User: What shape does this take?
Amino acid sequence: MTRRKMIYEGKAKIIYEGPDANTVVQYFKDDATAFNGKKHEVIAGKGVLNNRISAHLMTKLEGIGIPTHFIRSINMREQLVRSVEIVPIELVMRNVAAGSLCKRLGLKEGEILRKPLVEFYYKKDELGDPLIGEDHIITFGWADPYELEEMVAMAWRINDYLNGLFSALGLTLVDFKLEFGRIWGEHGELYIVLADEISPDNCRLWDSKTGEKFDKDRFRQDLGDLVEGYQYVAERLGLIPEGGIIKGGSVNEKMMEGLDQIENELAERRRLRDLKPTRPRKA
Ligand SMILES: Nc1ncnc2c1ncn2[C@@H]1O[C@H](COP(=O)(O)OP(=O)(O)OP(=O)(O)O)[C@@H](O)[C@H]1O
Ligand SMILES: [Mg+2]
Assistant: This one.
């Protein structure tokens, strides 16, 4: 493999320079972290599953007209994505009370929210990604009102779509975190696209009947094998065969490559549709 320049190493992924200036490569690591990095473990196969699940969900979302950074999978652990300027906020959409919402407001885990709840967090590891309101975003210039409106509108559509998709598979989408990025077009027009990843690392997915958790809470709360949970999600999505592709910590690479190819064909078929411009960039 050719040596590429690393741009950023995060807790779960590494970003490398892409083949051209408009793209970067996302490499999915096996590292699992929780509680702001205080808990850390390397879990064989996690990166492969997240890469696969995220590629699939991004492709599906493109299919309903949500612009995303995803271009195509490169291999088991890597995907080619458009290089974006990350908006420094995390948008969390919640359908059911769990995690920090319960802690903050004293809610019981599992309480169905009267209406899905949109929350914002400032992306700043040193501060522990604090909860913020829309006014903070505008006042501190992290996004302008047009961008904010667009991100929130996309999040609602994504929630509707993913809720349907997962509930048909017997899974409840409890909540999820989104990141967005800016891309400027040839004529200086700005596009807001969905970036980062959508995987069981940043979604909560529960079995609709039993409430069993298949997401990163397995790791956070020591509820059992993390990879087993992620494999279960991938299986239900039809991305890997029943019985999984990771056994005893080793990945069936041959099978995984074949599956990647299928995903790429899907992505190829949708072609890179023209992005819908939002507003001209200020001079
Ligand atoms: N298309 C993209 N172009 C540029 N950067 C991206 C893109 N998609 C995601 N990123 C950024 O790359 C990093 C991915 O790494 P990772 O998810 O491991 O980060 P992290 O440890 O969670 O830290 P962070 O708090 O920065 O998200 C994130 O900072 C994310 O915002
Ligand atoms: Mg991240």
